[in-house]
Amino acid sequence: MNKNNVTRRQFITAASAGTIAAVASRAIPAYGNLGKKAGKLAIHGGQPVRTKSWPSWPIWDKSAEESIRSVLRSGIWCRLGGTKVSEFEKMYAELMGVKRCLATASGTTALLVAMHVLGIDAGDEIIVSPYTFIATYNVVFLTKALPVFADTDPETFQINPDKIEERINENTRAILPVHILGLPANMDKIIAIAKKHNLLVIEDACQAWMAEWRGKKCGTLGDLGCFSFQNSKHLPAGEGGAIVGDDDEIMDRCYAFHNCGRPYRSVKRTSSYPVRGSNRRMQEFQAVILMSQMKRLEKDTQTRNENAHYLTSKIKDIPGIIPHKLYEQVTRAAYHLYPFRYKKEHFNNAPRSRFLAALSAEGIPCSGGYGPQYKDGLVEDALNSRGYKKLYSKERLNRYRQELHYPDNDQLCQEAVWFSQRLLLATKTDMDDIADAILKIYENRDKLA
Ligand SMILES: Cc1ncc(COP(=O)(O)O)c(C=O)c1O
Q1: Separation CA 315–CA 190 (nearest Å)
Q2: Could you write out the DSSP letters of every residue in 204-216?
Q3: Atom of ligand 1 nearest to the CA of 111
Q4: Distance from the alpha carbon of residue 271 to the mean position of ligand 1, in angstroms
Q5: Interval 336-383: pLDDT, tens
Q6: From the CA of 353, how far away is ligand 1's center (Å)?
Q7: 257 CA from centroid of ligand 1 (Å)
Q8: Which of 154, 168, 148 is nearest to 414 (CA)?
Q9: Residue bearing the CA closest to ligand 1, atom 10
Q10: How far apart are the C-alpha atoms of 421 and 444, rounded to whole Å?
Q11: pLDDT digits (tens, 9 = 90+) for 234-270
Q12: Ligand 1: which residue has its CA nearest to atom 14?
């Protein structure tokens, strides 16, 4: 029997008795007695499951304050002439297990530099997941290339690797896998497809610090990997980013490009500015904040993983709640967000917005995550621009428009529920509050719609 076919009475009997007795061949485990947490939903004026606050983010210590003050007093705030950004780059490369790291002003700029240096240009097509932060779309459009979407796998929330090959044509230059929510994409399949079709792989690991695929860090599996250190991120510096890679010549070109196109090591001094460039440099202040934040990254990653796995074990059998799946090759996730799918047919057809409101009222902050952004105005904004009209034929742009149809992604956008990483930094007992709140809503689903 499928878990979703367990009757309400069977489920409540097992849950409220607090027994682990099976109610069906696919047993619903005991959630513990909801006790005082049972009763009227908070959204209807009942007592919330939780009134305690959650960990806030970011978290810093006194040593960070001292390092920032010392950079300030030195008067060397730019990496040119300073040592802090280079120091951070060395530490981050070591942590990632790669030869080189280049720090940048943000994750977006890291992606832009990587794309430029790997030769992505006008007319190229880049295969990417529609289910990502909008920056991933934007960097492709800013390069005057076309982001060609491969539909999302709703189970893993990642690009569906089995939908990639059908999107490849003579214009395809690269696959841009995003380890979205900090959960690794299927890199075995992506790299195999890229090899077969001679494509570049640029990893958007902007949400995936310390995540691992077969023991190797996400961001180090493709040609180049990009990270973000924006304020909400697990390694935060307000803003910031990095590119990592093992190829010295490519990394030298990244450095030169991010520093206005000045010569750098193998990028030889044929003139003051031998190549095109931009200013994408990180500041010394950002680097000292990052070095102090790095001290907590390993421990925090462990805590997030332990709590995420525990939470999954607590909610996986609640009818209508489908936790995300990790591929078996994932040795560790980053859990920038904790996602699951909400199936309204098991909650008296109450729309997801109602479930989210009920869960928030129980003291559990949550959100519905990304919408189907490929339908957002920015896609047409790019296609209708003077540049795109010059660079692409009308037929090609129309064909592109007609292909913008990703049903699995759209379904996921309607069903997803996310918890922020900061909730996962709390304790196991706090995870019980999350599970209890979901269970309470399930038990009261008759009054939810
Ligand atoms: C998946 C993804 N890609 C790219 C970015 C861009 O990074 P930044 O905000 O540092 O420019 C982000 C940031 O949230 C992201 O989540």
Answers
A1: 31
A2: E-TT-TT-EETTE
A3: 4
A4: 34
A5: 999 999 999 999 999 999 999 999 999 999 999 999 999 999 999 999
A6: 26
A7: 20
A8: 154
A9: 107
A10: 27
A11: 999 999 999 999 999 999 999 999 999 999 999 998 9
A12: 133
Work out the burial of residue 46: count CB atoms within 10 Å of its CB; fewer than 13 is exposed, 13-18 middle, 19 or more buried. Answer: middle
pLDDT at 38 (0 to 100): 80
Say which residues have a Cβ less than 8 Å from residue 244's Cβ, sequence separation at least 6.
92, 93, 96, 98, 100, 101, 102, 219, 220, 224, 225, 227
Sheet order of strands, 241-245 included = 100-104, 241-245, 224-228, 200-204, 172-176, 125-128, 146-149
**Contact residues for 275 (Cβ-Cβ < 8 A; gap 6+):** 253, 256, 257, 261, 267
Ligand 1: distance of its center to the CA of 115 in Å?
Answer: 15
φ and ψ at residue 7, rounded to 5 degrees: -75, 160
Q: Looking at the whole model, is its pTM more than 0.85?
A: yes
**Which residues sit with their C-beta closer than 6 Å to ligand 1?**
106-108, 132-133, 135-136, 178, 204, 206-207, 228, 230, 241
What are 141-152's pLDDT values in tens digits?
A: 999 999 999 999
Q: How far is 228 from 205, CA to CA, in rounded Å? A: 8
- Going from the Cα of 109 to the center of ligand 1, the distance in angstroms, rounded, reads 9
Query: What is the per-residue pLDDT across 113-133, written as a single tens digit (0 to 9) for each?
Result: 999 999 999 999 999 999 999
For residues 176 and 201, what is the distance between their CA atoms, to the nearest angstrom? 6
Residue among 376, 372, 361 at smallest CA distance from 414: 372
**CB-based burial of residue 184 (10 Å sphere; 0-12 exposed, 13-18 middle, 19+ buried)?**
buried
pLDDT averages per 10-residue partition of the chain, 449 residues: 42 39 40 73 97 97 94 98 98 98 99 98 98 98 98 98 98 98 99 98 99 98 99 98 98 98 95 97 98 98 98 98 98 99 98 98 98 97 98 98 98 98 98 98 95
CB 283 within 8 A of CB 290: no
Cα torsion for 272, 275, 277, 282, to the nearest 10°?
Answer: -70
